[in-house]
Amino acid sequence: VTLSPKITSQKDELGKLGQTFNEMIEALREHDEKQKQFVADASHELRTPLTVIESYTSLLRRWGANDPALREEALQAIQAETSRLKGLIQALLRLAELERMEAEISFQPVEAVALMRETAGRLSVAFERDLVVDAADERIVCWGEPEPLKQLFVIVLDNAVKYSRRPVRIRLSRERSEAVIVVKDEGIGIPEADIPHLFERFYRVDKMRHRSSGGTGLGLSIAKQIVERHNGSIRIRSRETRGTEVEIRLPLAEESS
Ligand code: ADP
After folding, report:
1. Which of 13, 172, 175, 247 is such that its CA lies 20 to 30 A from the CA of 37?
2. Which residues of 60-76 are buried (b: 16+ CB within 10 A; e: fewer)?
3. What is the pTM of this model?
4. Interface ipTM
């Protein structure tokens, strides 16, 4: 059967429409799957510290009065798990807040060097560690939102401090229309196989190894979300036992380029 050119072209149109429709359904299904996975992961992460708290509380009630060593161990565990829960809830709220803000973008010029110096200064006092900020130019002005950018800096600096014992070096410069921020530590580093997964929610390289440092596995996924919101990029290079380098690129405000 030969169809008239008109019918053939209508068939093509219908075919294309059908394909677009299938793609849309597929994207929605994927989104739904991710959402379900996220809720499952979040519940699991929240339940783990609660279970520990619950078990230690019942140990305390049973033997705490007569066993000072057990009492001390239980109280320490309860305190650690409580602060872990607090960290998790804060991170989850931050994620929700970022998603809510998606619609109302309020960008403005942000002095990146000043913001970094302030953030590094604060962490330096809090953790009694050296964070050395080195800027190619004091006036590197990004186009962004001050609060999320500050969160971004805190996440990356906090990791550098958490996973190394040596001074952390931060360098800011510009390249064409971008601010380039490099945070370098000489810490434990990250195995190569883990690097592609670092930005996934709840991903931690070694849960037991990092349990005591109170990581949630949410920091870098929040960092990525903030960077993408700014049309920037974030990359991590690392060698185990040698250290880690995080490179963030953010668009400059016009007055800065
Ligand atoms: P967390 O809250 O556990 O630090 P992140 O999402 O910030 O979660 O980081 C994910 C994982 O990446 C961490 O658990 C840690 O194993 C690894 N990581 C991140 N930054 C560094 C770093 N500077 N040095 C070594 N490992 C790191």
Report:
1. 247
2. beeebeeeeebbeebee
3. 0.81
4. 0.98
Amino acid at 179: A
**H-helix or E-strand containing 226?**
helix 219-229
Distance (Å, rounded) from C-alpha 213 to C-alpha 188?
13
- Give the separation between CA 198 and CA 224, rounded to whole angstroms: 10
243 lines ligand 1 (CB under 6 A): no
Gap from CA of 115 to ligand 1 centroid (Å) = 22
Most ligand 1 atoms within 8 A of CB, residue of 48, 95, 159 to mutate:
159
Instruction: Pick from 92, 204, 234, 246 the residue to mutate for probing ligand 1's pocket: most ligand atoms within 8 Å of its CB.
Output: 204
Low-confidence ranges of the chain (pLDDT < 70): 1, 3, 102-105, 207-214, 255-257
